Amino acid sequence: MSTAGIRRAGWAALWAAAALAAAGCGGSPSAPATATTAAASPSPSSPSATPSGTASAAATSTVSGIAQGFPSTLIPLMPGATAKATSFDASTTPAGAVLVATTNAPVAEALAFYSASFTGQGFTAVPAASPSAAPGTGAPAQTLDFVRADGQETANVSAVTANGVTTVTVGASVAPANFK
User: What is the pTM for the complete model shown?
Assistant: First the structure.
């Protein structure tokens, strides 16, 4: 399997987990549940350890909203969409972020919004593979992949409509300096 295929498979697994977490967590939109992850007992060589040896928040996720510090310039919330979950980790190289949102817009509109957003940030679209059925829906999931920095930075958008609602999962893996 190619490096791009491995990356895509890894991101797909991460996004599927994020989508399942968003779907399975019934948090109230007016009171979002927030979880922050940090190393429980970092070693001195751990990148999340501070000079005093205590753990710092490295990865953050939120259900039913956008996590504080989420790179909204890199991955904006589509107008009219509702954020169901976000997660990001700026402490790794590359840094990674995922947004799961729902909208009443059709799949094509969601894909067009994120395509314009990523190409406007210097990403190049990768030729599409054929859609496959989204697990549990039977509906085809439409996916777009993007690269920049000679393939060192990637982004992916996946959208599917079920019961009249489009779920969009957007992820990016970029250099920490580009994590905005």
Answer: 0.67
| Dihedral sign (CA 83, 16, 145, 155) | positive
Asked if 129 contacts 63 with a C-beta cutoff of 8 angstroms, the reply is no
Residue 88: both structure tokens together: 């990001």
Token pair belonging to 63: 């259900």
- Residue 64: name the closest of 78, 87, 82 by CA: 82
103-147 residue pLDDT tens:
999 999 999 999 999 999 999 999 875 555 555 655 667 999 999
Specify the length of the chain in residues. Answer: 180
159, 128 in Cβ contact below 8 A?
no
**CA atoms of 68 and 88, how far apart (whole Å):** 10
Q: Can you name the residues that pair with 156 across neighbouring β-strands?
A: 145, 171
